[in-house]
Amino acid sequence: TDRVARMVPYQLNISVAEAIAQSQEMQAAQQTDPTVAELLSYAQRLNGVVRNTSTHAAGVVISQDPLAENVPLRRPVSESSDDSWIPMTQWGMDEVAAVGLLKMDFLGLTNLTILEAAVALCQEHEGVEIDYVNLPDGDRRTFEMLSKGDTFGVFQLESGGMRRVVEDLKPASIRDLAALLALYRPGPMEHIPRFIESRHGRVAVSYPHEDLGEILDDTYGVIVYQDQVLHIARKFAGYTLGQADIMRKAMGKKIASVMEGERGNFLNGAIQRGYTQSDAQTIFELIEPFAGYAFNKAHAVSYAAIAYQTAWFKANYPAPYMAAVLRAAAGNGDRVREAAAECGRLGIPLLLPDVNRSEASFTLEKMADGRSAIRFGLGTIKSVGRTAVEPLIAERKVNGPIQNASDLAERLDAKSMNRRALESLAKSGAFDGIASRGAIVAAAEDILKRARRAQELRDSGQTSMFDLFGMEVETPTPTVTLEEGLDATHHEQLNWERELLGAYVSEHPLQAATRALQGRVNAQLSELTEELAGNTQTVAGLINSVRQLTTKKGDPFAAVMLEDLSGTAEVTVWPDQWAVTKQLWEPNQIVVATITVRARMDRLTLAVESAESWNEQLASESDQVVESVSATGRETNPLLAQSSGPLTVPSIRQAPPPPWMEKPRQPLPETAPLAAVSPATPAEPIPMASPEPEARATASALWITIEESGDAEADVLLMDQLENGLKALKMMHVGNDEIFLRIRCGERVELLVCSDEWRLKVNEQVVQMVSGTLGARGSVTIAEPPGQITQSGDSAAGL
């Protein structure tokens, strides 16, 4: 089933029948495999049937009468264990609306809690009161930060794709952010490059029709908001705003019957107002796919305001803001790890929990050098919780710091603290100020026994004989004897921190390797997103876990969880690589791996193409590697550099064409290499020498050279990966530089000229990313475009 599902074209709300009609791969499977044919037969009959029942995350139905009189109700799907459950309707939202009931979505944003906490921390730690609702727009620090792509913790702007778009846009106001949030959605997204280019004046503002100028002026001729769709319908076809909203809803809900009628109404209205049928048809087709996905302006501005507020705090008060982010992330190990990595990048020290300093949650402390540090709270430790530590914190505030293990036993609340919680406190470093972690863990049971005895005495109100002497005789306290010299290894302590706090705090195992690895890697794990699909990147990470699995054929492979300073990601070591690198994949080992990013529908796969273990000797050797330019102009990758011999290229795994392509690429026959598409007469070879250094300064074209392999399938796959990679790069590096593709076919070279829609901004990062995709199969250079391209038959073609 999973194999067949991967054949479905990437199209929203596509039906099974439509998928079969559009996918030649699915048609072939249906015709040749009886099991697939049976599966698709049942799938078409089941298509559209309710699969499951669930509760809308934020939907609330409102009626002036008791709901039971207007709509059938039922117990919720996930019923609470107590009697506090709220009934849910048996109807969906469309049926609820049809009978005249009001459905409202009440959204709760964690970001508002973060803002509230940031305000309190600024007041407490910095002594400043901030009215975040009325922040002045246009703060320089805020927008400089956003323009650099520094968006972690910023509402709606954290994803890799959004981060790159923000960098390109370089917003300067909440209005810019609102437009960006509205555009970064399935319908309008394709207009983002034109919006950015027009916003910066690099492209002249143009309109679908000159009469729409007044409506689209604020957004540089690009339809951004649903409101604009309504005004276009009103201006162009004479709709009232109420009629326009009916059309918008029909578009949004994809109600075909209503839309067909609206198309006629729109065309007739536009013709009556003097527009041509062609213009009316063009405008309707422009707004039709857009209206269903676009934000209304009020929604976009509301989101943009919160994005600005969160960004403002991060830019102006980073320590209080990151402490607030960590408070909201407590209990979510992955999020804590990401926030901890961001604190490291911002230079904000993180401090271990401390029984004599920590509160229940994250707090701020001033260090001796004046910097603000964030200290972990006792209640944020895994397996501890606020209930266990709040009595201890209250006791410390009344009677002073905990002095030693015996003092801890005397003052511990045995009712709220259990052995697991006490051990977790010790392992995370909360008692480092009074004893070693290993010693406290070993004595945990003894400490609790004495704590329970002291608690019983306090609860019973008994008076020991020493109390009879009043203040003249000191009452002896339970004594806890700790084993001397007993402590965990440094490695164990770091693992405890990561397990219980969600992040390495004392030191990250990768920190020692960071300097040596800088020249070896070209991506962080957090950057391996769908925008890099088709590209190959080199990463370094610490192995957290290894799951050994088998394919349907029984071949072993593994899913490995890697971690670097930016976060974690699961990579797949397929059977071919597992066979040769199995010994590398052990927990707590550091590896350097070449990863291919693959996207199929909504799934992202990070496939390991090669890997090596990192160690001190390897690090020493890396310092001696000097970057150089090969004869073809490609910078040598230090990761692949050998002491002698050519670069090796990993085996290319077969993959289907990328889902975004309008037409699937047809495989070339085995007997017809890529050169077969050229005229029979050999073309004059094109010089392939690298450009001179001074030419780079004025270069404005990307030259990609690929060696024909003789393996048609491998060549087609490489072209697909290149095309997919260039698609992502166009979004990341918007520009007008040309791309020329040279394919070496034996002793001659075929030149392909990429069409204008593939132009981008050429820079060294683009060169590096394309080089990663090509590996040893090709090279990339930046050079001036040719003065003139002489075409001979089809020797110059479009990519």
Description:
The chain is globular and about 95 Å long. The longest helix is centred in the last third of the chain and has 21 residues, at 712-732. The chain has 30 helices and 16 strands. α6 (110-126) crosses α17, α17 (318-329) packs antiparallel against α18 (333-346) and α29 (712-732) packs antiparallel against α30. 34% of the residues are buried. β9 and β10 form a beta hairpin. It is α+β, with helices and mostly antiparallel strands and 799 residues long.
The main sheet comes to:
5 strands, antiparallel
Portion of residues in helices?
Answer: 25-40%
Global Rg: 32 Å
Could you tell me the mean pLDDT? 80
Low-confidence stretches: 471-475, 616-698, 788-799
- What percent strand? 5-15%
Amino-to-carboxy terminus distance: 34 Å
- According to DSSP, the number of beta strands is 16
Structural class, from secondary structure content? alpha+beta
Order of strands in the sheet with the most strands?
A: 10-9-8-11-12
Number of helices: 30
3D shape: globular
Topology:
Blueprint: H1 2-5, H2 16-22, H3 24-32, H4 34-46, E1 59-62, E2 73-74, E3 88-89, H5 93-98, E4 102-105, H6 110-126, H7 140-147, H8 160-169, H9 174-183, H10 192-199, H11 213-216, H12 226-237, H13 241-253, H14 256-272, H15 277-291, H16 297-316, H17 318-329, H18 333-346, E5 350-351, E6 363-366, E7 372-375, H19 386-399, H20 405-411, H21 419-427, H22 437-442, H23 444-460, H24 490-501, H25 514-517, E8 536-550, E9 556-564, E10 567-573, H26 575-581, E11 590-600, E12 603-613, H27 616-622, H28 693-696, E13 701-707, H29 712-732, E14 738-745, E15 748-753, H30 764-774, E16 778-783
Parallel strand pairs: 5-7, 13-14
Antiparallel strand pairs: 1-4, 2-3, 6-7, 8-9, 8-11, 9-10, 11-12, 13-16, 14-15
